[in-house]
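Write out structure tokens for Pupal cuticle protein.
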Amino acid sequence: MKTLVVLLSMIGVGIGFPSWGLPQPVQDEPEVTAAKKAHIAALAEAISLMQSLGAAQAVSGPEDDGSWKGDGLWKQHDDGSWKDDTQTWKQQQSEKKWTGPVALPPGYDKHGAPLQVLDTPEVSAAKSKHFHLYSYAAAKAAPPKHH
């Protein structure tokens, strides 16, 4: 009996679970849906126009004509003039490495620490006005002093 109650409870939770505020699929606005339909219709019209003009290859992309067979015939035309020189440069051990100043982006001092950000005159004026009004209101709201 307890198993039946647990089973029915789990089924009830499973049925009601999707309505508990879980994220729902994103729905397009009506304008977006209309724009998508118009775009797809224009695309289909362009494809059918190209196919009717006999330009099917432009739609499907370049086709392999099967002329390359990978049989090594291309090696007969290699005259050896191109050489792979990626490994010819080697750093000499006697060369000294750069020990000059480090290039830093603007806003950093010579040690790499960020420079202090200064307020513009407008921000300074607004801060000053705010602190003045705050201190005036705080003074009025303070309890009276007993001397």
